[in-house]
Amino acid sequence: MAKILIVDDEVGIRELLSEILRDEGHDILLAENAAAARAARNAARPDLVLLDIWMPDTDGVSLLKEWSANGQLSMPVVMMSGHGTIDTAVEATRIGAMEFLEKPIALQKLLAAVKRGLSRIKPAHAPSPLGLGAFARSAPLRDLRKRLEQMAEKSRIILLRVGPGSLAELCARTLQRVGTPWLDLSVSSMPLELNILETARNGLLYVPELIYLSRPQQKNLVFAMDRLERHAQTLVVATEHRPEELVEHGWDERALARLFEVSLAPPALGEIRDEIPEIASQILLHYVEAGEVPPHRLSSAALNALRNQAWPGGYAELKAAIKSLSLGTLEEEIGMDDVAHLLVKSPSVALGLPLDLPLREAREIFERLYFEHHLQIDGGNMTRLAEKTGLERTHLYRKLKQLGISVGRRHEETNS
Question: Modified residue 4-aspartylphosphate is at which positions (predicted)?
Fold first, then answer.
C-alpha cells in the first residue's frame, strides 16, 4: 500500500489518523513539526502528505510553499486545520495542495481524500529549477527574494549588479513562474524573431553578463526589450561592469540607460557564507529529486568545508561542485575527504601579482593565470573548465579570447 506522512503538532491527532490509516493497510510516517516533516519527506519520499496548517515552528502553508519552490511538491498534499479560513484554503490550493480538510475530520472524509490523493499520483518528472524560495530558512535570501519580487511588480526589466561569487542565475530563476519559458539571449547570435518571443510568452528572458554579448546579440536584446509588455515577459540581465565600460564594448548608451534604470546588487556567496550549507544541501536534494545523481547527503564536516571555500564562480560554480561530489563519492554520505579531493588547493597566484597596478589590469592578469592554470591541470578539457569556473561554454570561449588565450591550439594538442 501507500506510504503516508502525517504532520501535526497534536500527538492525539497523529495517533488517531495513523491508527485509521494503518488499519487501511498504509505505511505511516509521523512528524510533529515542519522540521521533522522536512526530514521525513527527504528520507522516505512519501506517496501522500496530510499537513496541518498551524504548527509551532513553521506553518503548513509556508512549508507547502517551500516544497513547491524547491521542486519537492511531487506528492499530493492534503491540508488540515481546526480553524482555517476560506482564504487560507484558496492559497494552499493555489500553491499546490490537493484539498483542505477541517478538523475534527470525519472518517469517511479522511478516507475519501486519501483515496483521491493516491489516485492522482503522477509519474516522476524533473522538478523546476531552484529559486530563492527554496531557501525559506535563510533570512538574507528571504529578504533578497522579497526585494526582487517587489521590483518585478513595477518593472519588467531588472539589472543585477554582480561581481565574483554571483547569484545572478538564482535571482533570475526566482522570477520565473512555474511552467513558463526561460530564454537565455546570450546563447544564439541569430536574429531574434517574433515567433521565438511568442513561444516564450509569459516567460523570463535572461542575460548572465552583458559585456559578453556580441553586436547581433545586443540588437536582439533591444528588440526583446521593446516587446516585453506585448509578450508579458520579464527581462533579467547581470553585469559586473559600469555603463561606461559597456559603451567601450560597443553598447548603445540609450539601451544601457533603459537597462540600468532599475537595478539591484545581490550579495555574493562570500558575503553570505553562513548560508552556503543550506544552499548546498538544497542543491543536492534538487539533483537527487531530478534523478541526476544517486541519493546522497552531505556530512556536517563537508558542509563546513564548502562554507569555508571561496566561490569566485558563484552559484553556478557551487552547483557544479555539488554535482561532481554527488557523482564522484563512493559512500551514501559525502564526507570531508570527498570535498578535499574535489576542491584541490591551487597554488596562490595572487601573491605573485604586482599589486601596484590599477585594479582592472591586475584582475586581467589574475584571470589569465587562473584560466591558464586550470587549462593545464585539466589537459585543455573545456567541459571540465566550464564546470570548475561556473561559466557557460559560450561565455567561457569569449572570455578566453578576450584574455588572449588560444583555445583552438589547446584542443589540437589535447586531441592529437
Answer: 52
- Neighbouring CB atoms inside 10 A of 377's CB total 12
Q: What is the pLDDT of residues 263-305, one digit of tens each?
A: 999 999 989 999 999 999 999 988 888 888 888 999 999 999 9
Burial class (CB in 10 A: 0-12, 13-18, 19+), 20: middle
Contacts 24+ apart (CB under 8 A), 242-248: 245/211, 246/210, 246/211
Beta bridge partner(s), residue 44: none
3-class SS of residue 101? strand
Level-2 CATH architecture, domain 2-121: 3-Layer(aba) Sandwich (3.40)
Angle at 225 between CA 144 and CA 263, to 5 degrees: 30
Q: Which CATH architecture has domain 132-264?
A: 3-Layer(aba) Sandwich (3.40)
Tell me whether the CATH fold assigned to 2-121 matches the one assigned to 347-415. Answer: no
Q: What is the per-residue pLDDT across 33-53, written as a single tens digit (0 to 9) for each?
A: 998 998 899 888 899 999 999
Integer-rounded Cα Rg, in Å, for the chain is: 24
**Per-residue pLDDT tens over the stretch 375-415:** 766 667 787 788 778 888 788 888 887 887 766 533 433 34
